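Annotators were shown the component list below and the corresponding predicted structure, then asked to write short factual statements about the assembly.
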Amino acid sequence: MSSPQSTRRIKVLVAKLGIDGHDRGAKVIARALKDAGFEVVYTGIRQSPEQVALAAIQEDVDVIGVSILSGAHMHHMEKLMEKLREYGAEDIPVVLGGTIPIPDIEPLKRMGIREVFLPGTSLRYIIEVVRRLAEEKRAREAETLL
Amino acid sequence: MEREKARRLIELARKGNLRAMGRLLTLLEKPGQESMWILEEMASQAGRAHVIGVTGIPGAGKSTLVSKLIGGLRRRGYKVAVIAIDPSSPITQGALMGDRLRMQEHATDPGVFIRSLSTRGLKGGLSLAALAMIEAFDAFGFDKIILETVGVGQAEVDIMHAAHTILVVTMPGAGDDIQALKAGVMEIGDIYVLNKSDKPEAQKTYEYLKFALEKGDIGEQEEGWTPRLVRVSAIMGQGIEDLVNAVEDHYKYAKETGRFERSIESRRLLLVKLLAERILYNILEKAAKEVVKPPNLTDSGRIPIAPLSLALVEETCRQASTTVKGKTILDI
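Structure shown to annotators:
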């Protein structure tokens, strides 16, 4: 009993963590994801890891996209992953975009960040990655309770 | 999703598990087999929460106001849920939902649950999802459910009728008394909120609204309730207590007069109609594939509009009776 219009759409949370008001990038991404047909919840600037984790849970999103241009990404992402684990939501894939030094990428991935987008990454690529991560998560959902 | 899984999710949600609540809301958003069963289950546990509808013109400051309203209600000890409705693109069906942005200060409050909902391109889909979510939040034990939507379009007006208390939000300079006279969402308020009342033109707009209310041009006078007008500046945090008082007065009135129960009844009657409409619509889509196709289209080179639509209705009814007859919600 479903029609093509009513199928569940990919839902993404776009957030900025920490003391960082540079939201142009996050807004461009949010807009591009919307235009790709996704539902985007934008939580705005200066969010704490706990706010982002709880928003993602309440909205039941498929992917969390974080933008950080302040340089404090190691600290904030660590806290975000901690909060997600605390609320039993570590299965929600997290991606990060921003001015991230290349040597930080590996440690971030070890933390559990699924993908790091550096300046200059094409929107098309970002959309593709988000779609793939969302589809993988949906597939896992079918097998687990949450 | 199997029934057992849904049952366990409901159990977890009733115990306050946020992820289970989030997931159940997703299932209710997507009309389908399991959502009908979950909806039935939720509704059987609901009927207690006070539903507050917040509507008004775009840019009136609804989301900021809702955020302050959450704060005010929390100070009085209520658990608050919010359903924030934002439009989706008619072209890509995508949506950028930003209402939550203004309410994020409450994100970490365990007594607050905020959920965004996009309007979809689907007829009746918005109302169906929103009304189903009301039943769910009610069943989860929230005391106040705030339903925020742009007051444009019939679906939005319909949803507002599912609320116990309707807040219509406007702002200075949003129009004179003629605007206030126009039909639509302006007519249905129990409480009118003049937001941004720290602005210079606020006094003039306040006078207009007061006059329109006193004349009965806007707002429906009911036995025991006269629509109120409250001046607020959400961003400055002014007038919030007055607003919460007005909301609580209306709640008391609704409880005392039986309007509270009547409202729940009409909300559920609307759900019944929307759900039936959804089932029928899906059957119609299927029937259309059989009826509205090339051989039938070429009646002397012209598409026979009226005969074809009648044929479609006939086929839909035929299929509908075989689809639904003798079946329970579990088979559909």
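Statements collected:
1. Chain B touches chain A at residues 5, 8-9, 18-23, 25-26, 29-33, 88-89, 92-98, 100-101, 104, 107-108, 113-116, 118, 120-122, 125, 279, 281-282, 285, 332 (CB under 8 Å).
2. The two ends of chain B are 14 Å apart (CA to CA).
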